[in-house]
Amino acid sequence: MRKNNSLLVMIPVLFALIAVSGCKSSEDYAAERGKKAVTHHLLSQQREIQDGRPLSLDQCIEIALRNNLDVRVYELEQEVAKEFRTAEALGMLPELTLTNNFTARSNSPASSSKKLVSTGQTYGASVSEDRNINYLNIDLMLSMLDFGIAYFNTQQAQDRVYIRKQRTERAVQNLSFDVVRAYFRVAAAQRAIKMTTTLLEQCRSRFELIEQARKKKQITVPFAYQQATRFIDMEKRLTQFVRSYENACVELRALLGYYPNSNIFVDESVLDRVPDFKLPEISTMEQIALIRRPELYEVDMQRHVNLVECYKTIAMMFPNVKLFVDWSNNNNSYLYNQSWWELGVRAAYNLLKLPQNIQRYRSHRKQVETEEMRAYAQAVAVMAQVRIAYGNLLSARERYDLNRKVYTTYDENLQAALKSQAVGRTMQQLELDHMRLATTETSIESLMSLGDYYVAYYRLLNVMGLRELDARSADELAEEISDADNRMKDEIAAARKAFDEQRAAAMKEALEKQKLLEAENAAAAAAERRAKVNAQIDKRIEAESANSLVQSEKKQ
Q1: Interval 307-342: pLDDT, tens
Q2: CB within 8 A of 379, min separation 6: which ones?
Q3: Which of 248, 358, 382, 552 is 20 to 30 Å from the Cα of 255, by its Cα?
Q4: Residue 368: which residues within 8 A CB-CB, separation 6 or more?
């Protein structure tokens, strides 16, 4: 009977894992989902804005970056990628195996042998080991192939950390822009409510005035219908600003990480001034976007991941060489040496895997070329986005100037009408009220277009991959672009120099080959001429010999 203590240890561990993991039914998932729903709902209600003061744009962005759950998810994914990187780096360590086997027999492990040369048996059974044996082995092994693969995996894990970082940065940029867009919607709607609340009450009260004037036959029925319709249309347009306020507040609170209701108040003083944004040239903005957009960094990093995969495939084409050293101890009393060291090298090579690895290398190499093309295509798309965003900014400014001009015209006419009424000139009250509502509407449209102008500017920054752009950052980015341009010029000059040197060497080699060929051709032509001359001489000698032979025969 043999007993293995390692098996006795693994069996209870295996049963414990089975008991912990267990299988889940659909009812279990439904119950878990219900519990999480209640918990998440309560947690979301616990977050609330503590200070009742109006929030500025910078405060909203700061709160969003601190509380937004989507950004938090990206940050956690980045931490997970770092843990995987550490795990891949630890894979470069050699294998250290500690083995301890204890065996106990019920009978003595005796054995006998049989002679092969002569018949007969040996002198009975013999014993070469004890009934109870404890074998201890410590094995340290380093696989060169596994070490190389782990090294390349670490490089890829590091690239994935960088990719997660760029995704987090892009998520932060998109979140900042979403906060800006919702903030100006709330600010414009908030001021529109202040401007229209009193006027809407007056507008509703004018229906009674129109009805009384119609009953007294001071105005005709068509004129009363026309005035009532005008006030109803105006009320619809003004209440549209009020209805959009709650939606904008819910969106802004959700972006800030608070419970999505309409309880928020922002600083609307930013709408009191018209900014004059200082922007570089459009070509400079395109180059800034090509340098700062996280998506382009991500494509470059993904290309390097595929390139490292090519290196891994090449490494797998080599034989697997393992270096090992181990120490063993055996308490068998019949052994001459009970402890010993062992050092060795093992090499194995699977030839039938070579075609697969070659094809795999070609596939990953083609993927590298695909990523290069994707990077170029995405760069072109980014430049197009910069152009579109810049055009949108100019259009937003023109739209604001036009709306502001319309509001100024309406306001001047309203002030003139009020002065005309003050000096006793005739002006119907209904027309004056309608002018007030129309002027307020144009003022609100002007505020909305001013908010769109701000949003268009921040959209341009988001397209360029920036959160803010001041004079200092613009100068730094211009310097970075200049340095990149100089490096590219140096690389192009070096590549051109190397190309010229290679071309000169190739031309020199071709010229030498041509000279050698010409010399060979000249030598061949000379040899051919000599052969012809020799042939002619031989023919002449043969002719003279024949002639002399004929003459000698005639003389005889």
Answers
A1: 999 999 999 999 999 998 999 999 988 888 899 999
A2: 290, 296
A3: 382
A4: 303, 306, 307, 310
The three-point CA angle 63-68-71 to 5° equals: 120
Is residue 151 within a helix (H) or strand (E), and if so which, with residue range? helix 144-215
What are 31-73's pLDDT values in tens digits? 777 766 666 556 555 566 656 678 888 888 888 888 888 888 8
What percent of the chain shows pLDDT beyond 90? 26
DSSP symbols for 287-316: HHHHHH-HHHHHHHHHHHHHHHHHHHHHHT
d(CA 76, CA 56): 28
Nearest to 368 by CA among 312, 306, 427, 310: 306
Q: 350-359 contacts: CB < 8 A, separation 24 or more? A: 353/316, 354/317, 357/313, 357/314, 357/316, 357/317, 358/317
Q: Which two tokens stand for residue 100?
A: 């301890």
CA angle 158, 159, 162 (to 5 degrees): 95
Residue linked to tokens 């004056």: 432
Cα–Cα distance between 550 and 126 in angstroms, integer?
112
pLDDT tens readout for residues 486-526 = 665 666 667 667 767 777 787 888 888 888 888 888 888 88
Which residues face 497 on adjacent strands? Answer: none
- CB 473 within 8 Å of CB 278: no
Place of tokens 């065996």: 103
Q: For the segment 426-481, what is each residue's pLDDT rounded down to a tens digit?
A: 346 667 777 777 788 788 888 889 999 999 999 999 998 887 765 555 566 666 66
How far apart are alpha carbons 503 and 490 in whole angstroms?
Answer: 19
User: 367-389: b or e for each residue (b if 16 or more CB lie within 10 Å)?
Assistant: bbeebeeebeebbeebbebbeeb
CA 398/CA 403 separation, integer angstroms = 9
DSSP 8-class letter at 257: T
Average pLDDT over residues 265-276: 85
CB 26 within 8 A of CB 129: no
- Which residue from 78, 288, 256 is spatially nearest to 169, judged by alpha carbons? 78
- Which residue, among 377, 382, 384, 376, has the nearest Cα to 292 in the 3D structure? 382
Sign of CA dihedral 489, 490, 493, 499: negative
- The CATH homologous superfamily of the domain defined by 5-12+53-106+130-469: Outer membrane efflux proteins (OEP) (1.20.1600.10)
* DSSP character at residue 133: E
Pair 264, 59: CB distance under 8 Å = no
Question: Which among 206, 232, 238, 212 has a CA at the least distance from the CA of 433?
Answer: 206
Helix pair angle (429-464, 221-256), 10° resolution: 30
Look at residue 172 and tell me whether its pLDDT is greater than 80.
yes
